[in-house]
């Protein structure tokens, strides 16, 4: 991973250059900054997060952080996209039902389990009050959930879904149900939540939408 010395507007391109001959200090600094940012988000929330605190926690000079990212929102956006702790695995169970259940369990774990749960809740809550942060959050979910498209291509190839199925609509229905239950209602899903949600979505997905 490489990062420009000037802070990019889009955190997806926020990749520090390797400094020196064969040095990987840029990527190492970026990883330290991202880890510190996410840890502080989990501990204190978005409103109390500061670049200065990230600098203290990561051991990277704050002028370097400001050079790479011009705002707190841009830094958080880069950390969301750049940290591996927020990756979503693509399930491959051999069936659409199994894959969707695996995907929903992964989303629920992202929202509820340490170390990602407190980060996700803090960011999602703060995004309702910050259009800048909301844009970065949308970019994060578009990137992560967009990686799930092969799951639906396999389902179409197996004859489990019509070829004209909108895969992102199915993702929105499942991930949205998880978000509403965990973040908006502050409820813990019961043991049958995943199976019931997947069954409901599949029943609708296999129906033909009237012309």
TrEMBL record:
Residue span of region Disordered: 1-27
Gene3D superfamilies (UniProt xref): Homeodomain-like (1.10.10.60), Tetracycline Repressor, domain 2 (1.10.357.10)
Protein name: TetR family transcriptional regulator
Molecular function, one GO term: transcription cis-regulatory region binding
DNA-binding region per UniProt: 50-69
Lineage, highest ranks first: Bacteria, Bacillati, Actinomycetota, Actinomycetes, Micromonosporales
Highest rank taxon of the organism: Bacteria
Coiled-coil annotated residue ranges, if any: none
Residue ranges annotated for the HTH tetR-type domain, each copy included: 27-87
Species this protein is from: Actinocatenispora comari
